Amino acid sequence: MKKVTLTLLFLVVTITMNAQTIFGKWENKNEETGAVDSVIEVYEKDGKAYAKIVEITNKDRQNAVCDLCKGKNKNKPILGMNILTGLKKDGDEWSGGKILDPKTGKIYKCFIKLEEPNKLKIRGYIGFALIGKTRYWFRQQ
User: Fold this and answer.
1) φ, ψ for residue 16, nearest 5 deg
2) How many domains, in total, are found in the chain?
3) How many Cβ atoms are within 10 Å of 51's Cβ, its own excluded?
């Protein structure tokens, strides 16, 4: 009986702790339709946060390349591409990194913040955070 109780307690704690982190898989939804258009995995490397596209739901776009990108991402597959790079933890948000919009090929400064256990705020901007755009990703269930 103790083993079952401890196992259940461990599962609850693990799930709760996992829900309090930015790391994991997140769904990016189309602003117009609300449908999931991609899944992004946020991961940690050397104390910084990064994210890459791990799934594209539109079958016609799964082999799409970033033809509008510049530099090393030019004409590279969007699937598997890192779109968030080098964010550092600063209090309750991660900032100081960049985000790539593979639809336009543009790179912006950004910060991300866990708004709710299953809702991640992403703010991309040019210059000042006041001039930019906010998107939300939702934890994949």
Assistant:
1) -65, -45
2) 1
3) 26
Is 64 in contact with 44 (CB distance < 8 Å)?
no
**Residuewise pLDDT in 10s, the chain (141 residues):** 565 443 433 433 333 344 589 999 999 999 889 999 999 999 999 999 999 999 999 999 999 999 999 999 999 999 999 999 999 999 999 999 999 999 999 999 999 999 999 999 999 999 877 789 999 999 998
The predicted model scores a pTM of 0.82
The residue range of the domain holding 33 is 22-139
| Phi-psi map region of 95: left, alpha, beta (phi>0 left; psi -120 to 50 alpha) | beta
Indicate whether 85 belongs to any domain: yes
HEC string for 93-127: EEEEEEEEECCCCEEEEEEEEEEECCEEEEEEECC
**∠73-80-83 over CA atoms, to 5°?**
60
Element housing 51 (H / E)? strand 48-56
Q: Is 16 part of a structural domain of the chain?
A: no
Q: Does residue 13 lie in a domain region?
A: no
